[in-house]
C-alpha cells in the first residue's frame, strides 16, 4: 500500500508539469472550477448573496460575513490550481478540501482540510497576550484539519503543518497554490515550490469550499484535475448533500 501511494503521488506531481494543450478527453486534465463569468458550479453555504461576485473576470470575495461557499460536487483525488491575492493588510481566507460542505452548529466554518491563505501582515496584527508575534510560517500556507478532521502534519506546529520556506507574497500581489490531494495526503506548492504537507487525513472525499473571513480576497484562476479514485470508506467520505 505504501508503494502504491508513493507511485500515485509521483504520478500526480508529473501531471502538474503537463501543459494543458492537445490532450485526449480520456486523460486527466485541468478543468476550470471558476469560469470567469459567474458562480456556476458553486453553492453559497452561509454567507450573504453579495459576498461573492465576479468582476473583470475575477472572483471577488468581500470577506463579510465569515463563512464559505462550496462546490456542487465532491472530489476525492485531485490536483488543484488556485491563483489568489489579498487586497487588505492582514487578510484571512483559505480553501477547504474534503469538506462536509455544511457548517457545524455554533460555527462559521466547516469540517474539512484547510489550506490557509493569509496576508503577510496578519502576524503583526495579531500579537499574543504577552506581546510576542505568531510564527511567521503561519502566513505562508499552513495546513490543518478543521472542526474534527484530523491529519498527521509533515512539519508540525502542534496539530498544524507549517511551510518549511516562506514564499507567499503580500497585499495586492498574486500567489499561486498548486495542491496535490491523493488518498488522504496533501502536498502544497506555494509560488512554484512544494513546501508543506500532511498525511493520513481522516476524511478523503468531500466538497471544496472557499472561505470568507473578514477581508477582500480575489481569485483569477481555480482549476482542478481529477485523478482516479482510491479505496475510501463511508467513514472517510463527507455526507452527500442535495
From TrEMBL:
<dbReference type="GO" id="GO:0016787">
    <property type="term" value="F:hydrolase activity"/>
</dbReference>
<dbReference type="Pfam" id="PF06439">
    <property type="entry name" value="3keto-disac_hyd"/>
</dbReference>
<feature type="domain" description="3-keto-alpha-glucoside-1,2-lyase/3-keto-2-hydroxy-glucal hydratase">
    <location>
        <begin position="30"/>
        <end position="224"/>
    </location>
</feature>
<dbReference type="InterPro" id="IPR010496">
    <property type="entry name" value="AL/BT2_dom"/>
</dbReference>
<protein>
    <recommendedName>
        <fullName>3-keto-alpha-glucoside-1,2-lyase/3-keto-2-hydroxy-glucal hydratase domain-containing protein</fullName>
    </recommendedName>
</protein>
